[in-house]
Amino acid sequence: MGKIRLLDEHIANQIAAGEVVERPASVVKELVENSIDAGSSRIDVVAEEGGLQLIRVTDNGSGIESEDCELAFYRHATSKIQSGKDLFSIRTLGFRGEALPSIAAVSKTEFVTSTDGSGLGRKLAVEGGDVVTQEETSARKGTDISVKELFYNTPARLKYMKTIQTELGHISDYMYRLALAHPEIAFTLKHNGNSLLQTLGGGDLLQVIAGVYGSAVGKQMIAVGGESLDYKISGYISRPELNRANRSAMSIMVNGRYVRSFAVQHAIMNGFHTLLPINRFPVVVLHIEMDPSLVDVNVHPSKLEVRFSKEPELVKMIEDMIKEALGRQVLIPKGVQASARIKESFVQETMTLYRPEADPLLKQGITPAQWREQLSVPEDGQAPASADNREGAGEGRDTAQEADERRRSLASLDSLAPPESGAGSAGSAAEALAPDGDGRREQQPLAAGGAAGLSGRGAADDRRTGSASDAAVPDGVPAPAAQEAAASRLREPQSRPAAAEPYGAPYGSGAYGSQPRSGAAAGAGGRTGRAPAPDDRPYSREAAGSLLAALPTRSDKEALKRPDFPSLSPIGQLHGTYLLAQNEAGFYMIDQHAAHERINYEYYYTKFGEPQEASQELLVPIPLEFTSADFQALRDKLPLLEQVGVYLEAFGGNTYLVRAYPHWFPAGDEQAIVEEMCEWILTERKGVDLSKLREKSSTLCSCKASIKANQSLSTAEMEALLDRLGGCGNPYTCPHGRPIVISFSTYELEKMFKRVM
After folding, report:
1. Nearest alpha carbon to residue 319 among 268, 262, 284, 275
2. Residue 210 and residue 70 in one domain
């Protein structure tokens, strides 16, 4: 007697249910997708106890004809496929005809439908796959299906269900995806009477994003779009500072269907290249429309994975589209979360207590000009000296009381005086940060007397280099003149000279340099803590002009369609790590290591494009030892290293000799860089090509050649760093994706100090 037999319909449906109905979220997915295919404009979903007790889906779609109601619960019964050709142009979300019989086989299902507005409909009750009752009933147009006691007849399946909150999380997650895929449909989701999702169905995708992820996320989304002969793409991507720890917030819709595509996700991450920290992912909602013949959706049981016919073209289009959209943005994150609505500001007004008739100077006939002259020019006709110097050196003929009064007056003048051009040398700005003549960075300690941060007086001393005769009016002048002088300084931002020196030859090469910026404060120089070299020159705009001549012009930046990096005036340094700067828009903090790392990265990335021209042989080769397995694996990768200018030669045993490398490798770190390059090649499992190796090598070199934290910079060095940063292709993040600049707007600062309410 034969052993093979045909299973009956009931057992076959229960087996099929194991593939289609994995958990309550699978039921919601199949039922809601049927409602979407029916042309519904409103879909309501109600769940109880994580969907195990009840799942009810109600829509206002086309409904099902009375004679088709029972047939819909048979396996492979569908209205969406007529012939085999239709499988190559599927436009609906469902097409297999397996959902309803599989759901009904493991639950108690009640089904009510109507195709018109007459009020008459059809009702079916199905338990365990068997139709219990079938009758006419009153119903509005659309379909109302309730699934109760899911897995009641498969206790083994019910036993391994997760907690209610876990199952609810899967239900809500897929409902969010469907709402993002179809913003033209009004969705509602309720669980145990609590509303979890409600969209308006107005077709505004950004409004749905705000409803799903919150209004704060919606405000940080950037619109993207593009179109080709085969594809039409639209959607939103988040700013880089808004990111997640996993890919769950990346939603990809293909012809209205939510899918998971590793290729598309990889293209999205390439579009955010170096803008995101390691292992962080953006919030993305992309709608991809194409001819159904270009995509195969019948490759996964739950239809979550698809295959594209022209995948390379699609990947390239998405990557370029995201890069272009991000390139048009100023990607400086806010230090304080902006208010949802900027209210009318009320600024605290100043109150003047000055009375001219009570001014003793005016009574004596002393004018403001005479007062300034007496403060700044000694009676002996010698060069002007500050009050601090006169008191400290015991010079002048003032009494102690008069010196103290004059010192306080000068302090008040300095608080209003515009900054002067400093006397720092051009070399001081470049020596600690710049590579030497052949491109290597000198590993020297920075000048000890630079701007030592907020804890010292270096930055303040750099700005107070002029005499008191150049200062503004003291408190003793008539109030209108003092107020007008202060107001004019607030209206007109001060200008500062360009950087004294670029950070060496690589940064002035023109590949990504910076034009001299206007609108920044003057005041470079600063104390270097060492005697100036014989060829040191004063820090001046004329000296810097020739050095910056090769940098891009404004028209070049307009051709790139990139917004200008803000003009920033350094005002100090915090903990030897963060530069503090300002402009008319507000206050900025800059990570000095990340900024220098970005500058170096773009330089080395350009250099690694032509490494053979810079490769130099070594008089004394560097030995590198490996394990036997790594030695053999690296042998096949030697040509790849040669393409970036690194030449290794087998020396016997498990040792390679480094015979040559590019001369612009950071001095002192050559061996470490070559070792890390070899290690990365050996551990990279996804395949190594020249572009990946070029990027990785640039990152290694830039990190080792950059200034570190806890290094004090002089004002001239800060100026040079900001000038170089402003000319980078991406001045907003370091190669590892960390932000370089954080901003605080003037309004946000006033809010923190309660100057506006």
Report:
1. 268
2. no
pLDDT at 361: 64
pLDDT in tens, 580-597: 999 998 999 999 999 999
Determine how many CB atoms are found less than 10 A away from the CB of residue 228.
13
Residue 522 covered by a domain: no
Question: Could you give the CA distance from residue 173 to residue 29 in angstroms, rounded to a whole number?
Answer: 10
Kind of pairing, strands 243-244 and 281-282?
antiparallel
Residues 292-308 have a mean pLDDT of 82
Please report whether residue 70 resides in a domain.
yes
What is the number of domains present in the chain?
A: 3
Residue at which a domain ends, from 286, 306, 328: 328
Element of type H or E holding 408: helix 400-414
Which pair of tokens denotes residue 538? 């004063």
Residues 6 or more apart from 714 whose CB is under 8 A from it? 424, 428, 429, 446, 447, 449, 450, 451, 458, 462, 525, 526, 527, 528
Q: Any idea which of 119-123, 326-330, 411-415 has the lowest mean pLDDT?
A: 411-415
726 contacts: CB under 8 Å, gap ≥ 6: 514, 517, 564, 565, 567, 568
Residue 454, pLDDT score: 38
On average, the pLDDT of the chain sits at 74
H or E segment to which residue 286 belongs: strand 284-290
Alpha helices in 443-560 (DSSP H): 458-463, 479-491, 541-547, 554-560
Three-point CA angle 608, 610, 611, nearest 5°? 65
**Number of neighbours of residue 732 by Cβ within 10 angstroms:** 23
Q: Identify the CA nearest to 681 among candidates 635, 720, 645, 746.
A: 635
Do 117 and 244 lie in one domain? The reply is no
Structural domain includes residue 524: no
Check whether residue 208 and residue 186 sit in a common domain. Answer: no
Q: Are 724 and 499 in contact (CB under 8 A)?
A: yes
310 assigned to some structural domain: yes
Catalogue the long-range contacts made by 666-673 (C-beta closer than 8 Å, 24 or more residues apart).
Answer: 666/440, 666/441, 666/701, 666/704, 666/705, 667/436, 667/440, 667/441, 667/442, 667/443, 668/443, 669/701, 669/704, 669/705, 670/622, 671/622, 671/624, 672/704, 673/697, 673/700, 673/701, 673/704
pLDDT for the residue 287: 95
Structural domain containing residue 242: 204-328
Residues 52 and 176 reside in one and the same domain: yes
Pick from 114, 126, 78: nearest CA to 99: 78
Are 215 and 173 members of one domain? Answer: no
Whether 299 and 247 map to the same domain: the answer is: yes
Question: What span, in angstroms and rounded, lies between the C-alpha atoms of 20 and 35?
Answer: 17
Contact 597, 702 (CB under 8 A): yes
Last residue of a domain, one of 126, 160, 194: 194
Distance (Å, whole) CA 317 – CA 337: 33
Residue 173 sits in the same domain as residue 224 = no
- Residue indicated by tokens 């109905």: 21
Strand segments, DSSP code E, in 128-220 are 130-138, 142-148, 186-191, 194-198
Residues 597 and 714 in one domain: yes
Could you tell me which of 467, 470, 461 has the C-alpha nearest to residue 526?
461
Residue 492's alpha-carbon distances to 489, 518, 520, 556, 749, in angstroms, are: 5, 12, 10, 27, 20
